[in-house]
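Chapter summary example.
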Amino acid sequence: MEVLPTLRRSLIVALALLLTACPRSSRIPSGGTTGEDVPTGDPFPKKPAIEVRKDASADAALAQARQTAQATPDKKRAAEAYLSVRKAYPATTAGQDALYQAGVLFFESKDYVNARKSFNELLFENPLYTQAEDAKRKLALSAMEVGAYRDAYQTLSSLAERAEGAEKEQLLRDAARAAEGAGLYGQSLTMAVEEAGQAKTQAERDAAVARVEALVEGRADFVDIARVADGLSPSNPAWPVLTFKLARVYYHLREWNRLEETLNRFLAEAPGSPFAPQARELLARATRRVEAKPRTVGVLLPMTGRYQPIGEAVLRGIQLGLEGSDIELVVKDTQGDVNKTGQAMEQLAFDDGAIAVLGPVLAEDSKRAALVAEELQVPLLTMTRQDGVTDLGAYVFRNMLTNAAQANAVADYAINVKGYKKFALLYPNIPYGVELANEFWDQVVDQGGVVRGAERYSHDQTTFTQEAKKLVGRYYLEDRGDYVEGVRDLQGENLDAFRRRKALEKVKSNVEPIIDFEAIFMPDDWRRVSLVAPALAVEDIVTNACDPRDLERIRKTTGKKELKTVTLFGANQWSSPKGRSGLPELIERGGKFVTCSVYVDGFFVDSQRPATRNFVRKYRESYKQETGKDPGLLEAIGYDSGRMLRQLVEKKEGAPRTRAQMRESLANLKDFDGATGRTSFNDKREAVKQLFLLSIDNKGVTEINVDKEREKAASATGGSGS
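The structure predicted for these 722 residues follows.
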C-alpha cells in the first residue's frame, strides 16, 4: 500500500487538526526527550575498559561474602557484603563477580537505582563479562522502573535482536513497554504489531492487538501508523486495526480516492472484522458525498441558545421565500457552536444530500461551515458579515450587508451625487465603528476626496464636547493664532481677576470654528447619534441644511449671512424603532439636529420598490400577528436567499442536478429582484446590490431615489454622472 507519498502531500494541510483530536502525552521521561531521534547501537564498549586479573585473596574474600550473603535475609545488607569485596579488589575477576552479585541482590530487593549503578559500572568495565546478557536485561528493567525509558528501550531492543524463541518474544514485549513509556510510539507500535504476528495463542494475539489499538487511537501519529502499515500482510492480526485507522485518517483529510481504495481493500481482506460494519458505513458515507438531491436545501442557524432570535428571524424569511414550493428544507440547529456547525454541515452533505446550504449567520460558525463546504464541495450561501469568508473557497457565497458595501454606497452618493469632496469622521472605538470608518476613508480617497479630520470616542461615552471642539479647531486653542493674539491684547489692559476671566471667556467664544469639511460620517448606533448631533451644533456645526426656515433663524441669531452647513452621514445602525409619536426614535431624540442627514441600510420596510413592498406585504400577512413586528434585515436576507435557490432549482430548463452545477448557477446569477435590492454575485461570490439610502426630515425617513438624483447631478454639471 503506497501511503507515504500521500502523507507528505496531506500532512502539511491537515495533520495539525488530526493530532488535536488524538492528543499525545507531553511527558518527558528521564534519560532524554521524546521524539524520533532514538539512539542506536550498543551503549557499552566492545573491549574491557579495565584489564582484570585473577587474585587468590580476592577469591577468598568473595567466598566469604557469598557465605555472609546466604546467611543474611536482608538482600540489601547482603549486597553491601559483595560491594566491600569490590571496593577492596576492584581490578580482579572476583571484584567484577562481586559487583554482578550486588546488582542482582539490589534488583531482587527492588532497589533499582543501586541495581542500575552496579550493572552500569560492571558492563562499562567489561561488556564481555560472562553474565553480561543477564546484567543488561536487569539493567534495562531497572531503568524502566525508575523512568529511564529510553535507556531501557535501547538496551532491550538490542538484546531482542540477538535472542530467539520465547526469550525474544519477552524482550520485545519489554522493549515495547519501554518505548511507550519514552513516548517512542512509532517504535512501540512496530513491536506490538510484530508481537501480534508472532503470538502463539489467542490470548497473546488479543493482548497484542489490544495494545496496537490503544496506540493507534491515542498515541502513535499518522506517519507512524502509515509506516508500520506499509507492506504489512493482511494475515497479521493487527492489520485490520491499522488499515481501518488509516481509512479514518483519509476521511478527515478528505482524501476520497485513498479512502475508498483503503476501505474496499479492508472489506475484501477482513469482511468479518469487528470494524467491518463501520467500514461499510464510512464507505457509503463517502460515496454519498457526491449524491445530491436536487430539491433538498440545508439550513444552518442557531435555533436554540442565546442567538435563537437571530436564527428564528432568518428562518422565517427563508420559509416565506419557499412558501408553496416542493423544496425540502432540512434545518440544523448550530446552537452558536462552531463544532456543532461543522458536524451539521457534514450531515447535510453526507446524510441529507443537500444540493446547497443556507447560513450560517454568526461569524465563527460561518468560517467553520465555509471550510467544510469547500472541502466537500457543497455550495454555501452564508448570511454573515464576517470579512473574507468567501476567500475560503469557490463554493462559498455571501448574501449580507457588509461594512465595505455600506461605506462604498455612502461615499459614492456623497461624492458622485452630492458633489462633496471634503469629509470628517466621528466614530466609536469599537470594531463596527473602526472598520466602517476605515472603509469609508479608503473609499473617499479612492474616489478623489479627502478626509480633513477624524475623531473617535469611547463606546459608552455620553458627552461629546471635546470631540466636537477638536473637529473645528477649538480644543487646542494655544495653536490658534487668533486666540493667542486675543490673549496678548488682554495682557495690556488693567483688569481685575473677575473682568479678566470674563474677557478671556469672550476671546474663547469669539474663536471661529474651522469647518473645512462638507460632511461628517458617523458610523454608530442611533442612540448615540442622537447625543452627538446636538454637541456638534454647540460648536456651530450646522447640520440641518435642508430646512430654510431653520437656517434663517440661525442667521438672525448669529448675525452671519453666510452659513457653512455640513451633512451628516451614517450606517445601518442609525435605523431605529418607531417611538410614541410614530416617528423613528432617532428623530424623537435627536430632533432638528439629525434632520437632513442621510444613512444607508440593507433593507427599508417602507421602501416603494415593488419587490420590497411585495415581501413586506407577504410577511405581515404571515407573521405580523405572531411576532407583533415588521420584518427587518435578517428576515429580508433570509427571504431573498431562499428565493434565489428556489429560482435556480425550479428552472424549467437547465436546473442544477449536481452541486457543481448549483455552484455555477449561483455564480452566474444576475439581477435577482429581491426584497433587499436587485442582486448579482461578483467574481468573489459577494452579493452586489443597490443599498437603501435613507434621508431624514421632521416627518420621518424616506428612501432616496439615487438614480434620479444622479441624473439631476449630471444635468446640473453638464456631464453624464459617474
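To summarize the output: The chain is about 55% helix and 10% strand.
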